[in-house]
Amino acid sequence: MKDLSKFLEELFGWTDKFPWLDMLIGLIALILTAYIANFIAKKVVVQGIRKILMKLPSARNSALAHHHVIHRFANIVPALIIMNGIDSVPNLSDKIVHLVQMIAQTSLFLSIALTISEILNVFNTLYQKNPKAKNKPIKGYLQLMKLMIFVVCALMILGTFLKKDVFNLLAGFGAMATVLMLVFQNTILSLVASVQIASYDMIRIGDWIEMPSLNADGDVIDMSLHTVTVQNFDKTITTIPTNKLVTDTFRNWRGVSSAGVRRIKRSIYIDQSSIQFMSTDDLSRLKDFLLLNNYLNKKETEITAFNHTLMNQAEYNQRRLTNLGTFRAYIDFYLKQKDGIAKDELILVRQMQPTSVGLPLEIYAFTNTTVWVEYEAIQSDIFDHLIAILPEFNLKIYQASNIS
Fold first, then answer.
1. CATH topology assigned to domain 197-259
2. Mean pLDDT, residues 392-397 taken together
């Protein structure tokens, strides 16, 4: 023991002759202490806590384990050790000590800000598991909170190096309010737009929206403070500025999904030269159509009764059935018995204004499904049948002749 004491006395006496060596040993000891503390905090404590959380069944613990909350918080340990231990290093000038303390304090502020940011990420992850999250996303508000936290962090770091209080800095920034308004103009507009979108329930995650001005036509997959991300049906991604959804026009197809039905609104263009009165033979032949039997018998009775009152009138003054009117009745009966058509919704077959490319005969109805593939199959099946049966009514579809 005496030999060891004597050795230490000689060692310290030797280092006293070389102040820079004493300072170097102190710095190495401080850095080594901070490194060991950081290693223990991250590799032992953090990993241990993470493994425990992963084993627990709670969804909250699982979300906490997958994010870097504890890891970010562990960065505070070496910063505190360096900030408080730099004073004990001998032969360091006050300026260097103060500079190292400011740098350590800056690291401390950043670690706290990043920790709070990760906590907000955890909160957002947990909130998204709630079924109501699609209707009321909060990602934009959390991003605004992160922005405010990092602004405060930047002010505290600036105050540390300028040796001024944060509140004095904020008072000084009052004169720069106009400049700040210009810098954060997009953020302010996006925040106001986000509040309006949430208040009026204009868009939810999962909605199908259509915005031709920005070539967006697909499902909303993400909503943040500044942007709304849309995955188009061709799998491309369109990013829409949030404020554009308030200032520009877009179509939201959510009502179609909510109602469970989807509209068919499509026309067949009839060659007007093929429209004519029906003969007795035509009526007899069409009575074989199950859908038209009752209709034709009823119409014949009405027309016979009406024409009986006009016995002395010319034939052209009397009522007669037309092939187009009969075809309209056939379409109406066909749609009302067709599988896939919503019977409790409006079913309408109407003539539109004649055009140079034929007489539009519009079918207006709703399918009882909103699935795109099924909807297109039902619509195509209807028009396949109607186009194929047109010749039975002596009608033709308008088709422009080839011009050589």
1. SH3 type barrels. (2.30.30)
2. 91
